[in-house]
Design a protein that fits this description.
mainly alpha, 2 helices
Length: 115
């Protein structure tokens, strides 16, 4: 069975795309929450308020999922950068682009692939 090689630069591109998508949905959730606040102040019917509360709970749930996905992507970027320690940096140095997150040994992840 032939294994497909996946390069860090391709994964980095995918991560950037996913982060962009997540940022879009994060903005959408903010807009929905603002609209929900307007509706809550306008309506007094208990049935409507119960439905609005349901949507509020869904927005909170989805916001948490977005945060979890962003954290997972960031952790994977750091792990990819760690591969650079072993001399396997990507051609354009995506391992240097990890947004200033600190590793446990005190070195920033951006410094991990320097010789």
């Amino acid at each position: 069975m032939k294994k497909e090689i996946i390069y860090n630069e391709n994964l980095h591109f995918e991560h950037e795309h996913w982060k962009s998508e997540l940022a879009f949905w994060e903005d959408e959730l903010k807009m929905f929450k603002n609209r929900l606040s307007e509706l809550v102040t306008r309506w007094t019917d208990k049935q409507v308020l119960v439905q609005l509360e349901h949507y509020q709970n869904q927005f909170i749930l989805h916001g948490g999922i977005i945060e979890d996905l962003q954290e997972t992507i960031e952790k994977h970027e750091i792990r990819m950068a760690g591969h650079g320690i072993k001399g396997r940096c990507t051609r354009y140095g995506s391992c240097k682009k990890t947004f200033g997150v600190q590793e446990q040994n005190g070195n920033s992840a951006a410094n991990l692939c320097r010789p």
